[in-house]
# Entry
Amino acid sequence: PLWQLEAVSRLMEQKSVKAAISVIPVFSDPMQVLAAHPEERLVAITDRPLFQDWLRRADQSWASLIYHGVSHQYGKMPDPFSGMSGDDFENIENYFAGKAFVGTTIG
# Structure
């Protein structure tokens, strides 16, 4: 919830703590683990202006923003958990198959 992010911001500013925030600009919940409605399975950061405002304020005062992939998940399957953005390893199946990315071999 945004109120928790605001509380974190106040604490970071009070303590003069600098931090990095990894941003995943598209939230994907293909298996509808958290999404209450089908239309919430894919939510772009541009659909959340209050969150965007919070990110801008954090970036201007105490944080560095890191682009952390578009959706940070892999297709419409558990990988290996819920398939939801930020919950899985997005390419764990490729990793165990010996491929870092499609067409690229690990090692």
